[in-house]
Amino acid sequence: MLDVSNLSVSYGKQKVIREVSFKLEKGEVVTLIGPNAAGKSTTLRTLAGLKKADRGTIHLAGKDITESSTVDRVRAGLVLVPEGRQIFTKLSVHENLIIGAYHRADRDHASDDQERIFSMFPRLRERRDQKAGSMSGGEQQMLAIGRGLMSRPALMLLDEPTLGLAPIIIEELGRIVRNLAREGLTILLAEQNAMMALGCTDRAYVLQSGRIVTSGNAKELSETTEVKQMYLSA
Ligand SMILES: Nc1ncnc2c1ncn2[C@@H]1O[C@H](COP(=O)(O)OP(=O)(O)OP(=O)(O)O)[C@@H](O)[C@H]1O
User: Fold this and answer.
1) Do 2 and 23 touch, CB atoms closer than 8 A?
2) From the CB of 17, is ligand 1 less than 6 Å away?
3) Where are the domains of the chain?
4) Using a 6 Å cutoff on CB, does residue 45 contact ligand 1?
5) How far apart are the C-alpha atoms of 70 and 108, rounded to whole Å?
6) 137-149 and 167-182 helices cross at what angle (nearest 10)?
7) Could you report the per-residue pLDDT of 155-204, keeping only the tens digit for each?
8) Which fold has domain 2-77+154-233?
């Protein structure tokens, strides 16, 4: 589904991502775990076409998208749910969802998809006409995921969905991620919260200072020193 090869990214002269390579198979949930400033958001933003890579290639379902625009990547099935949610706070839940379908050629069917999202997230249905900015952090995160789903993605990039949320909401997010994967969505999660991430993913890559230092299945990785240190700091 996704094949990232030797990706390097800089801000000015500062190299932030160095020769990073990883793969995701269809239907997998894979996490990039790493501490603050490891380069997780930069990696996801580069995959979404919001930041240009210095070197390396990105293939989505066999197609080279390295030079594609963000909109073309969305049309090819890749969507980013950004860190900090970035929903439109002054618009209603319903309006935020409809905006998520904007780049779809078949957006006449958006209301069917909105129904699907409401059945997945009943709390969003109850708040259909509420201004998004007046909802709780957890509800806003669910809306951000729902908005991403409105583009009918094959691959969802989820950047730090647990940020600032209570443990019980984090648990719920873990269940949501697993359910989405069961329905066939491929998910790349970027997380500092190693505990949540390893609990709901198949495999993980540990990113430190812009390099992948170790990778493996979630259970094996939770035993490594790098991850144990992160558990302690999470
Ligand atoms: N727009 C930018 N301009 C310059 N440097 C940046 C910019 N965005 C990020 N960086 C730097 O790139 C490095 C990686 O940041 P990034 O946000 O990708 O890390 P992260 O792993 O997602 O961390 P966090 O969990 O804190 O978001 C950091 O040193 C950061 O200061």
Assistant:
1) yes
2) no
3) 2-77+154-233, 89-152
4) no
5) 22
6) 10
7) 999 999 998 898 899 999 999 999 999 999 999 999 988 888 888 888 99
8) Rossmann fold (3.40.50)
Give the model confidence (pLDDT) of 57-69 as tens digits.
999 999 999 999 9
| Rounded to 5°, angle at Cα 140 from 150 and 129 | 75
Cβ neighbour number for residue 207 with a 10 Å cutoff: 26
Query: How many C-beta atoms lie closer than 10 Å to residue 159's C-beta?
Result: 24
Amino acid at 185: L
N residues, the chain: 234
42 lines ligand 1 (CB under 6 A): yes
State whether ipTM is beyond 0.90. Answer: yes
- Structure confidence at residue 232 (pLDDT): 57
Q: Using a 6 Å cutoff on CB, does residue 38 contact ligand 1?
A: yes
